[in-house]
Amino acid sequence: MRAEMDEIVSALQGYLDDSxxxxxxxxxxxxxxxxxxxxxxxxxRAALAEREFALTHFHMRELTRRVGxxxxxxxxVPEVEERVAxxxxxxxxxxxxxxxxxxxxxxxxxxxxxxxxxxSRDLDIKAxxxxxxxxxxxxxxxxxxxxxxxxRMTGANDAIALAEKYARSDAYYPCVNNFPTTVPLPxxxxxGAREMQELQASDFLAWEIRKNCQLKKETLExxxxxxxxxxxxxxxxxxxxxxxxxxxxxIKELPLHWPPQRRSLTALHDAPTSTFLWHYELLRAADQLxxxxxxxxxxxxxxxxxxxxxxQR
Length: 313
Fold this sequence. Notes:
The protein is of the alpha/beta class. Helices cover 46% and strands 13% of the residues. It has one domain (2-216, 260-300). Strand 1 and strand 2 (24-32) form a beta hairpin. Helix 2 packs antiparallel against helix 4 (78-97) and helix 6 (125-140) packs across helix 7.
């Protein structure tokens, strides 16, 4: 499989990964030309191998759960948490300096379920996230030859096939009709995120983007991000949470950094990064622009395209 990946000759190559919890599902990753990826891979390996980290691979789940490569990185110990912050900052610097472009799409499970129920649609969360991520890629690279590799994900082939249907029925953004070749990693095999630095970086971005939405969940459930007052409501919610944190832990002073997001995500945004969130209002707007059509006439699909597990009602 690794040999097949190395044979990709498209002008741009991209690597995507998913990240999910009970509230949000995200697809994210990076796109670059061959020169960019050739700069990135040795730099990523070298950063992980630096003396204070001494790592051979990186995975956000292992880091957050302190298992695998991070089993000795005891959570809550100040010097260890500082090392974690330095690691994430260092990896974000590698992504930036290598010239990678980040793209991601997050879907609110709550809002998608509401939309499907109220509008009588049956949009699939994984396909919607893949489509949204590729839409962001195509808005930046409307005509470039691109090949994408999606890390292992249950139902990946069906999600990609259905995402292509969402894309080919999009008359508002015709650039996404030019759906790039997108290949999932096989469910079995010796090649995966442990061996592919490109997917480790994708895992980093997808996790951070989803986590950022999770941190804003309370605000997002009360007001749409498209509302003019969203910023002020978010600030008030954040200040209240910080004050409650200070009282609970008897903290006299606490530095405040705006916007309210993890420093590692701020560092990732030093590289070009395009993301968006599928929330209820955006789903309604997209549906209206499409006149409720999310599937193209069958004649417009590529011959031999795999059938999707779900279809529009």
